[in-house]
Each structure stands twice: as C-alpha cells, then as structure tokens.
Amino acid sequence: MSDVLPTGQANWIWEKYLPDIRTTVELFAMHIREVNSAWSYPSHEHLHYEINYVVAGEQITTINGQKYVQHPGDVMLIRPCSPHFSSVGASDGMTYFCLHFMVEDKVFLRLLDRVNDVLHPANSPFATSLRPSIERLIDLARTIDNDNISISHQLLIQSAVLKLMSEIGEHLPVLDSDSVNNHATRLAQQIEEMIFSSLNAVRVHGATLDHRTQINQIAKELGIHPSYCNRTFRSVYGVSPRQYMSELVLNHAKTMLGKLELPIEHIATLLGYSDTAQFSRQFKRWTGMSPSEYRFRHDQGRKIASLNMDVEDYGEDSGIKNQ
Questions:
Q1: 64 pLDDT exceeds 80?
Q2: Residue 210: helix, strand or coil by DSSP?
Q3: Are 310 and 246 in contact, with CB atoms under 8 Å apart?
Q4: What is the predicted pLDDT for the residue at 28?
Q5: Does residue 75 or residue 235 have the better pLDDT?
Q6: Cβ atoms of residues 254 and 294 within 8 Å
Q7: Element of type H or E holding 194
Q8: Once rounded to an integer, what is the mean pLDDT over residues 273-301?
C-alpha cells in the first residue's frame, strides 16, 4: 500500500495548494511600561531579537556604542548579543512597548540578520507596516489580566505575534534568484523536515536519540552520502544538521526545565536520553550548567523580574521616582 495521501484529483477542475508550514516563535519579556523622567535601564544583552516601540515621550538608547533617539511610533530592532542601555529623553516621562523573540526558521533568521537598520522612523515602510500588530499587542497587554489569562487570550496574542512576524518577513532582503528553489535549498528543507520528524518520534514513541545515527539515517533514506547531506544543509542553514538538531533539543530542554512541575528524569526521557546522567552531561556541555542549576537560575530570574515590575508599579503609584 502506498504511503502517499490520496489526492482527490480525479475529475478535478482547478486547485492550488498552500505550502506546508511549521514554525515556532519564542517570546520573552513582552511588556508595556510607563516610566518617569528619572528612569533608566542598565546595560544588558540577550540571545533574542528585540523590538522596541515608543508609544509616548522620547527614549535614548545606546546600542554597541551607537546612540539612537526614539520618538513616538519609531521602531527599534535590536540584534541578539548587542549590549544596550536606555534612558528617558523627555521631562514628562515615556511609555514604551517591548518584546523579545526568536524563531526556529534558520532562513528567516539569516535574512533578518541582513537588516542593517536599527532605528526605523515612524513614517518608514518598516514601522508603518508593523504598527497595527504592535498596537494590537499593546491593547492586549493593557486589557488582559495575567492572573486570569484564558486560552482565547493566549490565541489572540499568538495571532498578533504571527501577524507581526509576517509583516517583518515582508521587509526582509530577498535571496538571490539562483539560491531560491534550487536543488540544494529543497534538499536542505527536506533534511530539516526529517530532523523534526525524528525528534517528534523520540518524544511520541520514547525512542533514544543519537545525533550522528539520526543524521546518517536521514542521509540513507534520501539516498545521499552523509558528507553531502552535511555540506548541503550547512550551505543553506549555516550550521550542520547535527548542530541544528542539538539546538532544537537544547531549546526544548530549556522550555521544559522552565516548567517546574516536570521532573528532570521525565524531561530526559522525553528528549531521548537513556538516563538522567547522560542528559545532564550533555546539557552541561551545551550551557555550562546542570539541568537543576539552569532550572534554579531560570526560576530565580523570573522571580527577580516579577519583583522589579512590582517595585516599579509601586513607585509609580506612590509617586516614588526610580533613581
């Protein structure tokens, strides 16, 4: 019996398929904040991209030593690992919206990294295009009760974020025509799909995971040599298939470790490790921390962030200025 799905093409008149799509958008510290004129944010950096949008007032941000002045409607796109700090440039304070994001799509990230401009003025095509989705997220941030968020609210947020990603995609540089839809790109995308399928099989069926074996098996199923498999994938995605698989496993591990109700032993099993010790050794090679240490630091970081937000809210409500 054929594994191909029936097409229903007998006696058909016309049809057009939309492409198969799979994407994951990770969001971090999405918030709207009103601050007084004494407010400032210390120098920091993070592994996510950041979108920063001024609602009212003026923000002065220094990124990699370069100073930018941001006015209402201006959009700032900050790359990962870019040291930056901010202060208020207006005497009557400022309101801004901020979100940090990362996507799993390597082609999207490679094109996003080609966007050279950091500050996009309010009347620029980039800012004009993104504004409706950003303002939609601002409205949701103002109205949704975080202590009582429903599935419907979560889907509304996801919908607005995906719309925002699509608008960003409209302004990404276009790949050279000879690199689009060519054999290498199609093959790399096929390898990527098989990597995802193999990881899904691990989580669903409880199989053990061996990165080298998995990639060799993918190459065998495609009828190509493992070295050609690696070379082709790297030419499109910038990393080897094993590195790509490791990044996916690490991202899943971090996400699950953030859920305190999941035992580390269970997480190790879901990720395809034969025992907790093997998972712990690999996780420490990747991050320099054991899973339990990462979980503790992550939890402490969330508590500190929550405390800082509470302190700022208290300061604003009681007339205390941030120093």
A1: yes
A2: coil
A3: no
A4: 79
A5: 75
A6: yes
A7: helix 183-205
A8: 88
Q: Which two tokens stand for residue 312?
A: 């700022």
Q: Which of 61, 59, 60, 73 is nearest to 135 (CA)?
A: 73
Closest CA to 89 of 19, 160, 40: 40
Q: Is 268 exposed, middle or buried (0-12, 13-18, 19+ CB in 10 A)?
A: buried
Query: Which pTM does this prediction carry?
Result: 0.58
User: 50 falls in which pLDDT band (50, 70, 90)?
Assistant: very high
Q: Are 133 and 162 contacting, i.e. CB atoms less than 8 angstroms apart?
A: no
- The amino acid at residue 139 is D
Distances (CA, A) of 77 to 51, 127, 150, 163, 230: 5, 10, 30, 17, 32
- Distance in angstroms (rounded) separating the CA atoms of residues 86 and 242: 38
Which domains are assigned to the chain?
25-170 (2.60.120.280), 181-297 (1.10.10.60)
What is the model's pLDDT at position 317?
46
